[in-house]
Amino acid sequence: MNILGINGSPRIGGNTDILLDRVLEGARYEGARTEKAILNTLKFSPCQECKEVRDDGLCLIEDDWLPLSEKIEEAEVIVLASPIFFGSVTAQTKMMIDRFHCLWRAKYILKRGSKKKKKGYFISVEASQREDFFDNAKAIIKNLFATIDTCYEGELLFSGISHKGGILEYPDALKEAFRLGERIVS
Ligand SMILES: Cc1cc2nc3c(=O)[nH]c(=O)nc-3n(C[C@H](O)[C@H](O)[C@H](O)COP(=O)(O)O)c2cc1C
Asked: How far away, in angstroms, is 84 Cα from ligand 1 center?
């Protein structure tokens, strides 16, 4: 099984990064192949709403988003991790999502056939205790997953975690993340 983890946090070694690593570790333990993309290290522009767009669902802008989108296409499982920023996903995550607009158009407007289904999981952390922030982020992630033919299979959401590495003080959360990785594969 080929699993792609995507970290949308700018904080490498931060809470979502740690959780994502645990999920991928659990998946590797069960024999999966895993890869992690860190959006903040990629150079890609936000969607430009290009006047001319391709009908095959591919974006015209040639930057680091293109190879990432190929990896997403090839993966059987996507684990997308983003902390809550201002009640939503991070800008890095949203920028990646918006670039799928061409695919959205091909799928929903041009009714191009859908591709193989994959499984998707969402990981998020917030400093507050606001359920509505997670609901907001989940709605965005579900919208993306529908566009990339991915079933929203599960989530790991943790509230009240603020400082870098704060999640390490919650061993149960780390175990839960590892177990999710195992479960994804089995
Ligand atoms: C720009 C910014 C905006 C944030 N907005 C929120 C927010 O709206 N609600 C919240 O609960 N936490 C918010 N936080 C806190 C982060 O979600 C929290 O610190 C999280 O643990 C960061 O995860 P990371 O270490 O993976 O980046 C914000 C943090 C930053 C830097």
From this structure: 5
Which residue in this structure is represented by tokens 């998020």? 124
Looking at domain 2-185, which CATH architecture does it have?
A: 3-Layer(aba) Sandwich (3.40)
Residue 51 has pLDDT above 90, yes or no: no
Q: What is the pLDDT of residues 93-133, one digit of tens each?
A: 999 999 999 988 888 887 876 667 999 999 999 999 999 99
* Nearest-CA residue for atom 22 of ligand 1: 83
19 near 172, Cβ under 8 Å? no
Ligand 1 near 125 CB (within 6 A):
yes
pTM of the entire predicted model: 0.96
Judged by DSSP in three states, 26 sits in helix
User: What DSSP character marks residue 39?
Assistant: G
Q: Report d(CA 65, CA 87) in Å as an integer.
A: 24
Contact assessment for residue 172 and residue 16, using Cβ atoms and an 8 Å cutoff = no
- Name the residue ranges covered by the structural domains of the chain: 2-185
> Which positions ≥6 away from 109 have C-beta within 8 Å?
none
pLDDT of residue 91: 98
